[in-house]
Amino acid sequence: MAVVAAVALLIGILSFTGADTDPTDASTLNVLYTSLNSPQQLTNWKPSGGDPCAESWKGITCSGSKVTEINIPGLGLNGNMGFQLDKLTSVTTFDISNNNLGNQIPYQLPPNVERLNLAGNGFNAGLPYSISLMGALKYLNLSHNQIQGQVTVQFTSLTGLTTLDFSFNSFTDNLPQSFQSLTSINDMYLQNNQFTGTLDVLALLPLQNLNVENNRFTGWIPSQLKGINVQSNGNLLNSGPAPPPPPGTPPATRPVPNPKSGGKGGSSNNGGSGSGDSKSGIGAGAIAGIVISVLVIGAIIAFFVIRKRSRKSSPDVEKLGGSQPFAPLPSQESQDIKAVQTSSTASIKAFETPAMLNLRPPPFDRHKSFDENDDSAKPIVPVKKVNTAPINSKLYTVADLQIATDSFSVENLIGEGSIGRVYRAQLDDGKVVAVKKINSSAVSNSEDFLEIVSEISRLHHPNVTELVGYCSEHGQHLLIYEFHKNGSLNEFLHVSDEFSKPLTWNTRVKIALGTARALEYLHEVCSPSVIHKNFKSANILLDIELNPHLSDCVLASLVRDPDQVASGYSAPEVAMSGQYTIKSDVYSFGVVMLELLTGRTPFDSARQRSEQSLVRWATPQLHDIDALSKMVDPALKGLYPVKSLSRFADVIALCVQPEPEFRPPMSEVVQALVRLVQRANMSKRTFGNEGAARSDSADAEEYTP
Ligand SMILES: *[C@@H]1O[C@H](CO)[C@@H](O)[C@H](O)[C@H]1NC(C)=O
């Protein structure tokens, strides 16, 4: 009887849970939908609310209440994928191929995906490192995009991958050494890229099909691959017999494919990050349930059935110990992270993934050699948790800094902000830096300070001011940053004397784009996102080439009195409720763009009333070309392309909208500015004398995306 009751209950629960989608999955699809510009082709999808599983949203497959597949290829989609897909923990198939998506592939992707198809879009820039952590991956197709640079993904964990298609992109450099770990690979398509170096890392892989056509490979096709289907035209490969391998190379026959033979320290992992732990908790719950009542058993069984159906994880992966979180692998950044080497499972478990994923720089520094640091033979290098994360900046003493700043002399004072003064300093190695002396009222204790230092020290982006070191002793708290010769944008725009050259239009666009990238990095690459909260022209420092560097990241938490945060830049919702979000940063960014366009300060009490608030005065006129030409900074003396100006104004109008939800994410702002620059470059000859008498007339080439 009990069994019948349990089954009845189970059916009841199943049909109940089947009717509504997991709220996280549903809201993540809402975000995806709006990020794709809410296209009609995605029938039944909604920008908010709705029930993807029950309402049969186009391309969505569910299992129980969880979304397991997203198949939306070839629908002419544009926009971007949003930055939350990592929340879709049950998605095993994600296919958005053959659409018109562009820009960088987001870092946030479904973590347990088995089939990932992003082919046939316009993705550019590099690969997100997060792919390295997709231990469940079997099929990866990124072909026919414009992905550039070195393959910056570590394949050490991807031992279940059978198909890899990177063809028709702009990949460069040698194949990564970690390809050696692809112990299940059958099909590899690398054709039509600009890969260089030899094919040697492929020698021992269980390949059946390999296409390397139209690259710049050199050397020989490894003799071990002779029996398989290899297409290799259009390279610089030698056709003669390969020379004998140097001593110490592996045997000349390929091993029988064995998924576990890649046991290079890091190869054991599972595809079910996080869910493993909750599973064991449920196991215990089940035991208790048997004791307590049939009802509980029913619920547990139902839960298990739903979970099983939703997680079609591969048997290999299951066997390899289901409860480990994603184990991060040694990477080119591992050198930056002082970590304890250990290979024990216990410490891998203790490792907290976000600390490692956190603040990983976007794939800009392609020049860094991956090979140098290829650690595929070394054990996993875990990193401690966030709150105890080692600080990768140099520790200075107060005495050091006293010498460097001439006892914090007034002559060396270069700025004063809400949390402290900034001094120019010369370290004993001759290097000039900026030392920020934090007011004692701003820091309550050293632990808080060190946590902030740790967070700042993990920010690495060409447009974010780099932390050089810090000092915390005798109740003093100081931050040492790289020094930027040209001071802040605020000074440059508003305080310049008659002799200093005004910024040209191109430089203004370059500054806008660089700072947009800095914010994009903080918002969308860093995980969790960093909200700047105090974005203003005084926090944008300019180097000798007038490249922007965003300063004071993470420091807003030290500002006690919200009034100290520059009010002319605050979004309306911040002014009203003190609610900071990434969208309030976007607003502040729009205000800075307005400053760049008009040369005015956000609030100017010297002007007549209607013109005091820059946003209020300027925004109604942003779409009117004639009005724009009157608003534009007189210091430009009319030297600007009108089209570029009006596109710039369009971006501003989006950013300073009063409703936060309508403001674009920074990645879209970056995209819009990149397009603006590209068009300006294309039509450069038509306004060729722009900047002719200027120091920075070569700018246009400099800010290529
Ligand atoms: C990858 O996607 C492209 C574009 O849809 C397709 O032509 C190609 O066959 C796919 N590659 C594999 C290996 O499935």
TrEMBL record:
GO terms for biological process: signal transduction. It is found in: Membrane. Residues 232-278, 314-335 are annotated as: Disordered. It holds the Pfam family LRRNT_2. Keywords: Leucine-rich repeat, Membrane, Receptor, Repeat, Signal, Transmembrane, Transmembrane helix. It comes from the Eukaryota. One of its GO terms (cellular component) is plasma membrane. Residues 408-676 form the Protein kinase domain. Residues 1-19 form the signal peptide. Residues 262-275 have a biased composition (Gly residues). GO terms for molecular function: ATP binding; protein kinase activity. Residues 241-258 have a biased composition (Pro residues). SUPFAM superfamilies: L domain-like, Protein kinase-like (PK-like). The chain crosses the membrane at residues 282-306. This is Protein kinase domain-containing protein. It comes from Erythranthe guttata (Yellow monkey flower).
